[in-house]
Amino acid sequence: MANRLAHATSPYLLQHADNPVDWWPWEPAAFEEARRRGVPVFLSVGYSSCHWCHVLAHESFEDEETAAFMNAHFVSVKVDREERPDVDAVYMEALQAATGQGGWPMSVFMTSEGRPFYFGTYFPPEPRHGMPSFKQVLEGVRAAWAERPHEVTEVAGRIARDLAGRQLDLAQAGPPGEAELARALLELTRTYDPETGWFGGDTKFPAGMVVEFLLRHHARTESRGALDMAEGLCRAMAGSSLFDQLGGGFHRYVLRQRPGGPLVPHFEKMLYDNALLCRVYTHLWRATGSEEARRIALETADFMVRELRTAEGGFASALDADSIEDTDGAGKAGNAVGSGRHVEGAYYVWTPEQLRDVLGEQDAAFAAAYFDVTEEGTFEEGSSVLRSAGAEPDADGERVADVRARLLAAREERPCPGRDDKVVAAWNGLAIAALAETGACFDRPDLVERATEAADLLVRVHMGDTARLVRTSKDGRAGGHAGVLEDYGDVAEGFLALAAVTGEGVWLEFAGFLLDIVLRHFTGEGGQLYDTADDAEQLIRRPQDPTDNAAPAGWTAAAGALLSYAAHTGSQAHRAAAEGALGVVRTLGPRVPRFIGWGLAVAEALLDGPREVAVAGPVGGELHRTALLGRAPGAVVAAGETGGAEFPLLADRPMVGGAATAYVCRHFVCDAPTTDPEELARRLGSGSSGPSEAGRRSS
Is 515 part of a structural domain of the chain? Predict the structure, then answer.
């Protein structure tokens, strides 16, 4: 019999709708029930593509005996971290403070007031490697609650007070300057390994925000070191098993499982990673003319459209780490809610025998050498994850393409990974920006069209009549949770990029609606921003995190959109808010640049102006395309033949002599107009029809 999660819009919650656990969604009634019964709340937080979330569910939440104990002694609440990032952020902060580490699934025991007192992540079904079993944890918490209630209450109160009292130190208010950005670059250089192309540590996450900072810093200062790091890291990511060598797109991260061994991916594919990296590789091509960067950008864009696009025109959140092999032999699983055996990575890995079955002896030997498929294997049970980092640079390109196509066709017959079909506003904003710019740079109007369709969905379903965003939708139906700061910042960023590419001023207008809400409901004193609105549900702490995670922090995403909107409109209120928000980058950038990369990228735009480019002339014409190819950090572009009716930048800036004319400005003060694409390219640091000549020579 289905539990209370049966009507959820979250695929993750729907995965647990048939558990014997009497799950509640996060809602006041759950805490009222715990108060009525006098029992603690067990909070379980995860997401649909999380491998260890599936493991814990199968081992414990599907176990009748474990579920009966949970139902008798707890009120159990299930949360999708992607649907409720505010809940996840508050309790993850508590988990990390208490244990020194975090991760998902997150397991938190709390009072009926939401005050946590015991934390963990994954617990096995039996004691293992010094870790208690999940049943032992449940019994221990039950006993403490029953036998030492005052001690539990005291611990919960102390943790809640500690969380509520945490404040960010913005004593050095004001945006970072040259000195802080130079120190941030120096700190990145210290942790960068030029031999491997990666930053330090055994686990390697995509670093799209950091690469964006490096590319903008190079564009502004001509720093060769910044460009070398950006190129080296992008080359390492593209050649490793982080990148899907057959189908395009990036996995969530890679790690080294044994000393000296190859990097092995965690096989989830997240929309935000692929959107960010698609845009970064496009910008790398714009700076260097690298053919590899062009290929990776387009293959990533095509992956997003092919495998993540929903029927309504938005983009799904993720592909699962696991393939779902149906136990009834029904074949492929089409989404993450299917039943069956979950097998991590099975869709992506190959053995030499499998290569021979598809390609025959000669081409299999070629593919094994090119993609590093060995008899011993680099993953599990003699299988290997494809990578091309060690491939011969002069390998036959046509043969590689033929082998890839044949292997991809064969792979598509395997049980495929589950898909989380919910549409997250913020991540779709990132995808809109990426597809719009990639489509414009590579003359792919179909990608611009896909970006426009996703933007239409956000306006129609996520914004509604009030311009207040909802966080998620599924199957064209809006979810019930309010948008958070990253939703407003990233969606505004996507709309601004779409306005620049399409010349449709309505996207500038929609961005303005969202950013006005940021000013009214998310902004505090001294430039501080909060992750939730002042009229949102009140948790034990109002979450506030300026550091990047896998995607840009809402704080710096909003700062970037505010700055771009100010450049478009001349609004001093929006520019002042952006500058105030960047004060945290001045504090953190030189110390932890890898964790505030987008803030550093926005700061580069601020130092450069950012430049404002008005193109009075046809949208999609040569001058407009030249403006979009410019490397000036964070430059904004307005194009059209209708004066300032839709874009303030175009007001009183006419065509000269009936020809398309460009104006390059800072703070609405412009250089002399030009009708020459070559001259416009020179002013914006790019060649007339592609990347800069200097970039082409260096690639």
Answer: yes
